[in-house]
Specification:
It is built from 7 helices and 11 strands. The chain has 258 residues and is α/β, with parallel strands linked by helices. The longest helix has 36 residues, at 221-256. The protein is globular. The relative contact order is 0.12.
Length: 258
Protein backbone atom coordinates (compact mmCIF):
# COMPACT_ATOMS: atom_id res chain seq x y z
CA UNK A 1 0.00 0.00 0.00
CA UNK A 2 1.36 3.42 -1.03
CA UNK A 3 0.75 5.85 1.83
CA UNK A 4 -0.33 9.24 0.54
CA UNK A 5 -0.04 12.75 1.98
CA UNK A 6 -2.50 15.23 0.47
CA UNK A 7 -1.01 18.73 0.58
CA UNK A 8 -2.80 22.06 0.15
CA UNK A 9 -1.95 25.73 0.54
CA UNK A 10 -4.66 28.10 1.72
CA UNK A 11 -5.65 31.71 2.20
CA UNK A 12 -9.24 32.38 3.30
CA UNK A 13 -10.66 29.28 1.64
CA UNK A 14 -13.67 28.53 3.86
CA UNK A 15 -15.98 28.49 0.84
CA UNK A 16 -14.09 25.83 -1.13
CA UNK A 17 -12.06 23.91 1.43
CA UNK A 18 -14.78 21.53 2.74
CA UNK A 19 -15.41 20.24 -0.79
CA UNK A 20 -11.83 19.26 -1.54
CA UNK A 21 -11.24 17.82 1.93
CA UNK A 22 -14.38 15.71 1.73
CA UNK A 23 -13.29 14.39 -1.66
CA UNK A 24 -9.97 13.04 -0.35
CA UNK A 25 -11.44 11.20 2.63
CA UNK A 26 -10.52 7.55 2.28
CA UNK A 27 -7.76 8.39 -0.20
CA UNK A 28 -5.50 10.51 2.00
CA UNK A 29 -3.48 8.87 4.75
CA UNK A 30 -2.55 12.35 5.89
CA UNK A 31 -3.67 15.90 5.06
CA UNK A 32 -1.23 18.80 5.33
CA UNK A 33 -2.44 22.41 5.01
CA UNK A 34 -0.01 25.33 4.80
CA UNK A 35 -1.92 28.52 5.57
CA UNK A 36 -0.61 32.04 5.10
CA UNK A 37 -2.78 33.83 7.64
CA UNK A 38 -6.44 33.17 6.91
CA UNK A 39 -8.90 35.33 8.83
CA UNK A 40 -11.98 33.21 8.13
CA UNK A 41 -12.72 29.61 9.23
CA UNK A 42 -10.11 27.99 6.96
CA UNK A 43 -7.85 26.68 9.73
CA UNK A 44 -10.82 25.51 11.81
CA UNK A 45 -12.26 23.62 8.84
CA UNK A 46 -8.90 22.03 8.06
CA UNK A 47 -8.52 20.77 11.62
CA UNK A 48 -12.11 19.50 11.66
CA UNK A 49 -11.09 17.26 8.75
CA UNK A 50 -8.03 15.98 10.61
CA UNK A 51 -5.46 18.07 8.76
CA UNK A 52 -2.06 18.99 10.07
CA UNK A 53 -1.91 22.80 9.79
CA UNK A 54 1.29 24.78 9.29
CA UNK A 55 1.18 28.58 9.28
CA UNK A 56 3.66 30.43 7.10
CA UNK A 57 3.80 33.97 5.72
CA UNK A 58 3.07 34.11 2.00
CA UNK A 59 6.00 34.14 -0.42
CA UNK A 60 4.86 32.51 -3.68
CA UNK A 61 2.91 29.49 -4.86
CA UNK A 62 5.90 27.22 -5.47
CA UNK A 63 7.56 27.89 -2.11
CA UNK A 64 4.31 27.42 -0.19
CA UNK A 65 3.73 24.07 -1.91
CA UNK A 66 7.30 22.95 -1.28
CA UNK A 67 6.87 23.76 2.40
CA UNK A 68 3.72 21.63 2.46
CA UNK A 69 5.64 18.75 0.85
CA UNK A 70 8.43 19.08 3.40
CA UNK A 71 5.91 18.97 6.26
CA UNK A 72 4.36 15.72 5.00
CA UNK A 73 5.09 12.40 6.67
CA UNK A 74 4.76 10.09 3.67
CA UNK A 75 6.89 9.64 0.57
CA UNK A 76 4.03 10.09 -1.89
CA UNK A 77 2.42 13.52 -2.26
CA UNK A 78 -0.88 14.54 -3.85
CA UNK A 79 -0.82 18.31 -4.24
CA UNK A 80 -4.25 19.92 -4.61
CA UNK A 81 -5.64 23.44 -4.64
CA UNK A 82 -8.47 24.47 -2.33
CA UNK A 83 -10.81 25.11 -5.28
CA UNK A 84 -10.38 21.59 -6.68
CA UNK A 85 -12.06 18.25 -6.01
CA UNK A 86 -11.42 14.62 -6.91
CA UNK A 87 -14.02 13.24 -9.31
CA UNK A 88 -15.37 9.77 -8.41
CA UNK A 89 -13.38 8.33 -11.33
CA UNK A 90 -10.14 9.92 -10.14
CA UNK A 91 -10.80 8.74 -6.58
CA UNK A 92 -11.16 5.19 -7.85
CA UNK A 93 -7.98 5.49 -9.93
CA UNK A 94 -6.02 6.74 -6.91
CA UNK A 95 -7.34 3.98 -4.67
CA UNK A 96 -6.34 1.41 -7.28
CA UNK A 97 -2.92 3.06 -7.69
CA UNK A 98 -2.32 2.85 -3.93
CA UNK A 99 -2.51 -0.95 -4.11
CA UNK A 100 0.18 -1.33 -6.79
CA UNK A 101 3.92 -0.84 -7.10
CA UNK A 102 4.34 2.60 -8.74
CA UNK A 103 5.83 2.54 -12.23
CA UNK A 104 6.61 6.27 -12.33
CA UNK A 105 7.88 8.91 -9.92
CA UNK A 106 5.29 11.45 -11.11
CA UNK A 107 1.70 11.03 -12.32
CA UNK A 108 -0.64 13.37 -14.15
CA UNK A 109 -4.39 13.49 -14.73
CA UNK A 110 -6.82 15.71 -16.59
CA UNK A 111 -8.38 18.76 -14.97
CA UNK A 112 -11.90 19.89 -15.92
CA UNK A 113 -12.93 23.44 -15.03
CA UNK A 114 -16.31 24.83 -13.97
CA UNK A 115 -16.53 28.40 -15.24
CA UNK A 116 -19.44 30.84 -15.07
CA UNK A 117 -22.01 28.13 -14.51
CA UNK A 118 -20.80 25.31 -16.75
CA UNK A 119 -18.01 22.84 -17.54
CA UNK A 120 -15.40 23.90 -20.08
CA UNK A 121 -14.40 21.08 -22.43
CA UNK A 122 -12.25 22.93 -24.98
CA UNK A 123 -10.59 26.38 -25.25
CA UNK A 124 -7.25 25.03 -24.05
CA UNK A 125 -8.73 24.44 -20.61
CA UNK A 126 -9.40 20.73 -21.11
CA UNK A 127 -7.92 18.20 -20.66
CA UNK A 128 -5.29 20.52 -19.04
CA UNK A 129 -3.19 17.68 -17.62
CA UNK A 130 -1.89 18.39 -14.12
CA UNK A 131 1.16 16.70 -12.59
CA UNK A 132 0.20 16.54 -8.95
CA UNK A 133 0.98 13.02 -7.69
CA UNK A 134 4.68 12.52 -7.06
CA UNK A 135 7.35 10.95 -4.90
CA UNK A 136 8.67 13.69 -2.69
CA UNK A 137 12.35 12.97 -3.38
CA UNK A 138 11.87 13.06 -7.16
CA UNK A 139 10.13 16.38 -7.83
CA UNK A 140 9.86 19.97 -6.66
CA UNK A 141 7.66 22.96 -7.51
CA UNK A 142 9.20 26.05 -9.10
CA UNK A 143 7.90 29.30 -10.56
CA UNK A 144 6.48 32.47 -9.02
CA UNK A 145 3.16 32.08 -10.81
CA UNK A 146 1.63 29.07 -12.58
CA UNK A 147 4.07 26.95 -10.62
CA UNK A 148 5.15 23.71 -12.25
CA UNK A 149 6.49 20.44 -10.92
CA UNK A 150 10.11 19.91 -12.00
CA UNK A 151 11.36 16.34 -12.33
CA UNK A 152 13.36 13.96 -14.51
CA UNK A 153 11.79 11.42 -16.86
CA UNK A 154 8.26 10.86 -18.12
CA UNK A 155 5.09 11.00 -16.01
CA UNK A 156 2.52 8.27 -15.71
CA UNK A 157 -1.16 9.04 -16.19
CA UNK A 158 -4.26 8.21 -14.15
CA UNK A 159 -7.83 8.14 -15.44
CA UNK A 160 -10.52 10.45 -14.14
CA UNK A 161 -10.73 14.23 -13.86
CA UNK A 162 -9.60 16.66 -11.23
CA UNK A 163 -12.55 19.03 -10.95
CA UNK A 164 -11.64 22.71 -10.76
CA UNK A 165 -14.14 25.28 -9.50
CA UNK A 166 -12.47 28.43 -10.67
CA UNK A 167 -13.68 32.05 -10.56
CA UNK A 168 -17.34 32.55 -9.68
CA UNK A 169 -17.82 35.80 -11.63
CA UNK A 170 -16.32 37.73 -14.51
CA UNK A 171 -15.24 40.43 -12.06
CA UNK A 172 -13.28 37.89 -10.03
CA UNK A 173 -11.62 36.63 -13.23
CA UNK A 174 -10.63 40.18 -14.15
CA UNK A 175 -9.10 40.69 -10.72
CA UNK A 176 -7.08 37.49 -11.06
CA UNK A 177 -5.86 38.54 -14.50
CA UNK A 178 -4.61 41.84 -13.05
CA UNK A 179 -2.82 40.05 -10.21
CA UNK A 180 -1.34 37.22 -12.29
CA UNK A 181 -0.13 39.48 -15.09
CA UNK A 182 1.70 41.65 -12.58
CA UNK A 183 3.47 38.57 -11.20
CA UNK A 184 4.09 37.25 -14.71
CA UNK A 185 5.70 40.50 -15.81
CA UNK A 186 7.91 40.51 -12.73
CA UNK A 187 8.99 36.95 -13.42
CA UNK A 188 9.91 37.75 -17.04
CA UNK A 189 11.75 40.89 -15.93
CA UNK A 190 13.80 39.00 -13.35
CA UNK A 191 14.59 36.35 -15.98
CA UNK A 192 16.15 39.06 -18.14
CA UNK A 193 13.49 39.36 -20.85
CA UNK A 194 13.66 42.83 -22.41
CA UNK A 195 11.77 42.48 -25.73
CA UNK A 196 8.10 43.25 -25.20
CA UNK A 197 6.52 45.45 -27.89
CA UNK A 198 6.43 42.88 -30.68
CA UNK A 199 5.23 40.18 -28.30
CA UNK A 200 2.43 42.42 -27.02
CA UNK A 201 1.12 43.15 -30.52
CA UNK A 202 1.66 39.71 -32.07
CA UNK A 203 1.10 37.25 -29.23
CA UNK A 204 -2.18 38.85 -28.14
CA UNK A 205 -4.21 38.15 -31.32
CA UNK A 206 -2.44 34.82 -31.79
CA UNK A 207 -3.47 33.62 -28.34
CA UNK A 208 -7.08 34.61 -29.01
CA UNK A 209 -7.08 32.75 -32.35
CA UNK A 210 -5.32 29.76 -30.84
CA UNK A 211 -7.82 29.36 -28.01
CA UNK A 212 -11.03 30.24 -29.81
CA UNK A 213 -10.36 28.57 -33.17
CA UNK A 214 -7.53 26.04 -33.01
CA UNK A 215 -8.43 24.79 -29.54
CA UNK A 216 -12.13 24.78 -30.41
CA UNK A 217 -13.17 27.43 -27.93
CA UNK A 218 -16.20 28.23 -30.06
CA UNK A 219 -17.63 24.82 -29.07
CA UNK A 220 -17.83 26.08 -25.47
CA UNK A 221 -20.18 28.84 -26.60
CA UNK A 222 -20.17 32.09 -24.64
CA UNK A 223 -17.76 30.68 -22.06
CA UNK A 224 -15.24 29.85 -24.77
CA UNK A 225 -15.50 33.35 -26.18
CA UNK A 226 -15.02 34.98 -22.78
CA UNK A 227 -12.09 32.73 -21.89
CA UNK A 228 -10.38 33.43 -25.22
CA UNK A 229 -10.81 37.18 -24.70
CA UNK A 230 -9.41 36.97 -21.18
CA UNK A 231 -6.41 34.92 -22.35
CA UNK A 232 -5.67 37.57 -24.98
CA UNK A 233 -6.08 40.35 -22.41
CA UNK A 234 -3.72 38.53 -20.04
CA UNK A 235 -1.07 38.39 -22.76
CA UNK A 236 -1.49 42.10 -23.53
CA UNK A 237 -1.30 43.15 -19.89
CA UNK A 238 1.66 40.92 -19.07
CA UNK A 239 3.84 42.40 -21.80
CA UNK A 240 2.56 45.92 -21.19
CA UNK A 241 3.55 45.63 -17.53
CA UNK A 242 6.91 44.17 -18.55
CA UNK A 243 7.43 47.25 -20.73
CA UNK A 244 6.65 49.49 -17.76
CA UNK A 245 9.24 47.68 -15.64
CA UNK A 246 11.83 48.05 -18.41
CA UNK A 247 11.09 51.76 -18.79
CA UNK A 248 11.39 52.19 -15.03
CA UNK A 249 14.77 50.47 -15.12
CA UNK A 250 15.96 52.77 -17.90
CA UNK A 251 14.79 55.89 -16.08
CA UNK A 252 16.59 54.79 -12.94
CA UNK A 253 19.77 54.18 -14.98
CA UNK A 254 19.57 57.66 -16.52
CA UNK A 255 19.21 59.25 -13.09
CA UNK A 256 22.32 57.46 -11.85
CA UNK A 257 24.35 58.52 -14.91
CA UNK A 258 26.37 61.70 -14.10
Amino acid sequence: MNLLSVCLITSNEEHDLPRVLNSVQGVADEIVVVDCGSTDRTIEIAREHGAKVVTRAWTNFAEQKNVATAAASHDWILSLDADEELSPELRDALLEWKKKEPEFAVYEFARRTWYLGGWVRHTGWYPDFQRRLFRRDAARFSGIIHEALRFQGKPGRLSGDLLHYTVRSLEEHQQKVESYTTLGAQQMFMAGKRDWRAAMWLATPWNWFNNYVLRLGFLDGHRGYVISRMVARSTWLKFKKLGQLIEGERRAARVKTP
